[in-house]
Specification:
By secondary structure, the protein is mainly α. Helix content is 73%, strand content 0%.
């Protein structure tokens, strides 16, 4: 029999079960934020290792990249199956199909650990991947397993745990709490549910507080004061929105095509020799790195931050970075596309400044970031919010929203099905025969 105070507290809205659920979400938020911080520091160290090796001997990348990507994929297939790719499609699949969480290891702690380790190994070998997508899967896995330990029974509650964990992963990785909430609504669940919204909000907010307590109240890409006036604002919005939407839609279409498998003999060979294909991808990745002077390796964070600070770069860097991101992803290794996509968009926006006299370079760059990211994942609200939070710039809100809308419409023409949705559906389809 429960103590008297618990029985009476029930009528005041503070039942034992309610308190337990709150503690699960709050504890999970702290764990997700801590894992995202450690992941970020480990990823930065991994990138520095690769840069240190190739700084004086850039041709070593022709050996390190193929061997590294092949090793990453072998570990993924043989030791950590379920850790491949971004991690966001797996999380969406787990939210949509309850059987995924009970009959698949995709949200196991073992896969989460493997995801982190192999993503960092890939970055140490020059892969152009991000850690934000993997942080979503890791966050969802931590929350899901916390619910299992405490044996929380309700299906809706377990779904809310996965949703909150994924959103907290975005918030902790980028230090963008609002973007985490929007991402949960727009991309992970594609709906807003009153029963789970409070839990998701509180989890993301607490994860953001932990991140700021450890790392400080920083903005991911620093601060930019770039603005557009009404006289010349329409041209960059239309141009960046159209070009970014086209390139982002093309990027998504290529990834979906490879995810479904190429037709003919080439597709058969890739399926039969995935590790050898990963090595070939590594060789192509190294080739792009040598051509770009090493600027296409890694997440693209440093290059994007430098562009926003006014540093010049090659007009084709954005396209080269796009190629490196595609190659890294289709190799099959773990790693996300968030940060690389923002870097590609920054490069595209910078390249377009030559076509827009009088337009501030900073404005074109953040418009390009929003446009390409929207084109790639078709989540325009998330794109606008995440770039605003990352650059600490609210004065560009209306131009960014207009640019995202144009990019979304353009991307739809090339890629009717959103990238993460298509990948989640493919994952559910692959898992179905195993049941």
């Amino acid at each position: 029999m429960k103590p008297r105070f618990l029985r009476s507290a029930r009528y005041r809205g503070f039942s034992y079960q309610q308190q337990l659920r709150r503690m699960v979400f709050w504890t999970g938020a702290v764990l997700v934020a801590a894992s995202a911080i450690l992941f970020a520091k480990g990823s930065s160290a991994a990138i520095e290792v690769f840069r240190g090796i190739t700084a004086e001997h850039p041709w070593l990348a022709l050996i390190i990249c193929p061997a590294g990507l092949a090793t990453c994929l072998w570990l993924t297939l043989r030791v950590f199956p379920g850790a491949q790719g971004s991690g966001i499609p797996q999380t969406i699949a787990a939210i949509q199909d309850p059987a995924i969480t009970t009959e698949s290891s995709v949200l196991s702690l073992r896969v989460a650990i493997g995801k982190v380790m192999i993503t960092m190994l890939g970055l140490a070998c020059g892969a152009a991947v991000g850690r934000e997508g993997p942080s979503v899967q890791v966050g969802a896995a931590l929350m899901h397993n916390l619910g299992n330990v405490l044996r929380l029974p309700q299906h809706d509650l377990r779904r809310a745990l996965i949703l909150a964990g994924g959103a907290a992963g975005v918030a902790g990785a980028f230090n963008t709490p609002l973007a985490g909430i929007v991402f949960a609504i727009e991309e992970l669940s594609r709906s807003f549910e009153e029963r789970t919204s409070g839990r998701v909000f509180s989890t993301v907010i607490l994860a953001g507080i932990v991140s700021m307590a450890v790392l400080g109240n920083y903005t991911y890409f620093g601060h930019t004061d770039a603005v557009l006036n009404l006289a010349n604002g329409w041209l960059p919005v239309i141009l960046c929105g159209t070009v970014g939407g086209l390139l982002g839609g093309l990027f998504a279409r290529i990834l979906i095509t490879f995810g479904r498998g190429l037709p003919g003999a080439v597709g058969v060979w890739i399926k039969a020799h995935p590790v050898a294909f990963a090595a070939l991808c590594g060789l192509a990745l190294a080739g792009l790195g040598v051509i770009s002077g090493g600027a296409t390796y890694g997440t693209g964070y440093d290059e994007t931050r430098a562009l926003l600070a006014g540093k010049e770069t090659s007009a084709v860097w954005g396209l080269l970075k796009m190629g490196a991101s595609i190659i890294s992803y289709i190799s099959g290794i773990p790693g996300g596309i968030f940060a690389p996509s923002l870097a590609v968009g920054a490069g595209v926006g910078h390249a377009l400044t030559g076509w827009m006299p009088g337009v501030p370079a900073g404005a074109a760059i953040i418009l390009g970031m929003v446009a390409y990211f929207t084109g790639a994942v078709q989540a325009p609200i998330t794109a606008v919010v995440i770039v605003m939070e990352m650059t600490d710039n609210q004065s560009m809100t209306i131009p960014l929203m207009a640019c995202a809308l144009i990019a979304f419409k353009v991307s739809k023409q090339l890629c009717p099905t959103p990238l993460y949705k298509a990948m989640a559906e493919a994952f559910i389809k692959r898992e179905a025969p195993k049941r």
